[in-house]
Write a structure and sequence with these properties.
The complex is a heterodimer of chains A (about 425) and B (about 325). With about 425 residues, chain A is α+β, with helices and mostly antiparallel strands. Chain A is built from 18 helices and 13 strands. Classes of the chains: A alpha+beta (about 425), B mainly alpha (about 325).
């Protein structure tokens, strides 16, 4: 996190001035996101200036929610589990580490190919031996060792996994081929490749990549294949965090730089690695665009809306057919404006949506009085869902829905409950 | 209370027309709340929050977004209905203690906090010889449970405000707080041009950005906490913060250079004393200020529950 100059904070503090504090009703409604826009603007403006009210809002966040956040953070740090991919800083380091491993390993393969006739294997070994310690003090390495493993199992169920797998297959095929080439070439080359990879892995300082890779002590050929897990993690994680991936770009370059100081032919390898990374990023962007065709929102009256043209026009979506009937009836009697208004009001009485989350074609929408609807086909068909576990069911109004992917989601209610699913709403767990 | 705010015709007629529906939804009959008194409550609430020129349709939508059942319950309690109190206690007693514990983080303080709120809810304060319950200031904008948490938090901040944050002696020693002499730190002399540039850059920010900055840098909240307050994901706040810090710095630099200050000098002025930032903030937060910010005892009977203005540091 970049620090802000002190003078800025000093002035920020001095803008604070005496003013009427918003009352408890408004602060509550702000926290529950049920204020009208003009009211919210006023409250936020006040909060920006008033540390007391900020503290009140922070303290009044439901206990279960803040506990949930803390628990997720602990889980991310300690063990591979559901919810741990929520930990963003970890992911960022993971991306950096995976990028380093990928670039280095690709670079090494390239390098060894170029050196087929020239470089003696012993020389290469020596270089790698010196390069590794240089990179070790980097802070990214230890951090990665925790997060890396965590990320992989969590992402396994992603719908885009198929694409990722394909790409991975391409990559590993390529490397297999390279390995095969070298096999045909000379046995000493294979040995050097194996050693080189070992060097590459130690650069990651015992990071997850080495743990993912099976059979650490195997021969040269399995090692060449072993490279594939690293590029795979780059692909999967790039999908979760394209922005951070690019941000971390310079860092990985720096690492490479460190090493190239000792082994200058790596420069070409570095370029290759960078290009490979770029390609991954572009394919990732493209796939992301095609995944999200519909946009969802909730208007001020609590009605669910969908846009199929990127937000230019919005259409009301009815989650149950009965309601659709009453709405069209209302439209038929549109000559009587008041009547129309009344039936609309009635419809609203039943359902006021307060939160919506969409992930590809999966849509979740929830609101007043435990109302929760799920659609697996971008809103064409809906099913009502009532999360329950161990005899307890969700209560209160649904105030927040978060789905980090199609399977994993959290739902928070006005009664302070948090419900979690890891299987697209099939089963729920109360937190 | 309602006399203080003029009630528009739109509010009058909307409440009158929808009263049956609203009463049913609020469950007034069960709670022993008469239609007339509920109507008066609704009118007052609508008049309080809606702009005077709101149309009847707007009033209708507004009324339907209120937590009618919880509003009716709270006001029935305030009116001293025993059946309402029973419902309130079964629903919220346990939650109230839990919330107090979450806020105070310590059992005896939590009990103290919750008990004092109970007293206020039950109405120990007298006004014109009448018992006045704090529940009379609940307006159904947010959930009753959320409101109770907020009121607890206000009371807590009121009591242990600022310098009286619960800092254990050990921690104080660790931090060296005891040994720092506040006056040893010289006020950094900053030229006024820089100050005005910073002010302008801050003023140009949307209020939400300033809120995020203040919560993170001044209050020392974690990213997760800030995200929780705004109801967004932590990663959103993290990205926003990074972007904000960068753009702020750039903006300030640009404006000060425009004023003819040498770039190097400007950079130096901007970077002055970044190191003792935290210490300084802790010190300024530690300043005592007069208690009573959220004391609603004076005007507890008012529907408004407006908090008295207070001198800010």
């Amino acid at each position: 996190m970049e620090d802000v100059p002190k003078i800025v904070l000093k002035r920020l503090q001095q803008t604070a001035r005496a003013e009427d504090h918003p009352d408890a009703n408004l602060l509550t409604a702000f926290a529950e996101e049920s204020l009208a826009e003009y009211e919210r603007a006023r409250v936020v403006e006040h909060l920006a200036q008033c540390s007391d009210c900020r503290e009140v809002v922070a303290l009044a966040v439901p206990a279960s929610e803040s506990v949930a956040v803390a628990a997720a953070a602990v889980a991310a740090a300690s063990r591979p589990s559901r919810g741990s991919w929520l930990s963003w800083p970890g992911l960022r380091w993971g991306v950096a580490a995976a990028g380093i491993v990928a670039i280095i390993s690709i670079g090494i393969v390239q390098y060894t190919q170029r050196q087929k006739s020239a470089a003696p294997a012993a020389n290469l070994m020596a270089r790698n031996g010196t390069a590794a310690p240089a990179a070790q003090p980097l802070p990214s390495a230890p951090a990665a060792s925790e997060t890396q493993i965590v990320v992989l199992p969590a992402e396994k169920e992603k719908p885009s996994e198929a694409q990722a797998k394909e790409r991975k297959k391409d990559l590993s095929n390529g490397q297999n081929n390279l390995g095969a080439d070298r096999l045909a070439g000379s046995p000493s080359q294979n040995l050097s490749a194996g050693r080189a990879l070992q060097g590459g892995r130690s650069v990651a300082a015992g990071s997850a990549a080495s743990r993912i890779g099976a059979g650490a002590g195997g021969g040269a050929v399995p090692k060449a294949v072993e490279v594939s897990p690293a590029p795979q993690t780059v692909v999967v994680e790039a999908q979760a965090a394209p922005v951070t991936a690019t941000q971390e770009g310079p860092t990985s370059d720096q690492v490479i730089e460190n090493q190239t100081q000792q082994a200058s032919p790596y420069n070409s390898a570095k370029a290759v690695g960078a290009i490979a990374g770029k390609d991954l990023a572009t394919t990732q962007n493209a796939s992301k665009l095609t995944v999200a065709p519909a946009r969802w929102s909730i208007n001020a009256d609590g009605a669910l809306q969908r846009s199929l043209d990127g937000g230019k026009t919005w259409v009301y979506v009815n989650v149950n057919s009965e309601l659709a009937d009453s709405r069209s009836q209302a439209a038929r009697t549109a000559d009587n404006a008041y009547e129309n208004n009344k039936s609309k009001v009635k419809a609203k009485l039943n359902m006021i949506f307060r939160a919506v989350a969409a992930n590809g074609t999966e849509v979740w929408a929830g609101g007043s009085a435990t109302m929760l609807y799920h659609s697996a086909d971008s809103g064409a068909h809906w099913a009502r869902v009532l999360p329950s576990a161990e005899g307890a069911t969700l209560s209160g109004d649904i105030t927040r829905i978060e789905f980090s992917d199609a399977q994993h989601g959290r739902i928070a209610t006005s009664s302070g409950e948090v419900w979690i699913t890891a299987d697209d709403g099939q089963t729920w767990r109360r937190q | 209370m309602s006399a203080a705010i003029p009630i528009s015709g739109a509010v009058q007629s909307a409440v009158a027309e929808m009263l049956g529906e609203l009463c049913a939804k609020g469950g007034c009959a069960k709670l022993g709340l008469s239609r007339e008194s509920f109507a008066a409550i609704l009118r007052a609430v609508a008049a309080k929050y809606l702009p005077a020129e709101a149309s009847e349709a707007e009033v209708r939508v507004f009324l339907l977004t209120l937590r009618l059942d919880e509003l009716a319950l709270a006001r029935a309690c305030a009116a001293g209905e025993n059946s309402a109190w029973e419902i309130f206690l079964t629903r919220y007693r346990e939650k109230l203690y839990q919330s107090a514990l979450h806020i105070a983080r310590e059992d005896s303080a939590a009990r103290d906090l919750a008990d004092s709120l109970y007293a206020e809810l039950y109405g120990t304060t007298l006004r014109d010889g009448q018992r006045v319950s704090k529940l009379a200031s609940f307006t159904g904008r947010g959930s009753l449970e959320g409101w109770l948490r907020t009121v607890l938090a206000q009371e807590f901040v009121n009591r242990y405000r600022r310098g009286k944050r619960l800092v254990s002696l050990d921690q104080e020693i660790e931090d060296g707080a005891q040994f720092t002499a506040p006056e040893a730190e010289p006020e950094p002399t900053v030229n006024s041009r820089l100050e005005s540039c910073v002010d302008a850059a801050l003023a140009a920010l949307p209020s939400e950005d300033r809120f995020v900055l203040a919560a993170y840098y001044l209050d020392g909240r974690t990213l997760a906490e800030v995200a929780g307050m705004l109801g967004v994901h932590e990663s959103t706040i993290s990205r926003k913060m990074d972007k904000l810090a960068k753009s702020l710095r750039k903006e300030i630099m640009a404006s000060i250079v425009r004023q003819g200050v040498d770039r190097r000098a400007a950079e130096e002025a901007l970077e002055a004393d970044v190191r003792d930032l935290r210490v300084n903030i802790r010190r300024s937060l530690g300043q005592e200020s007069p208690p009573g910010a959220f004391s609603e005892k004076k005007d507890a009977g008012r529907l408004e529950g407006k908090i008295a203005p207070r001198a800010e540091s």
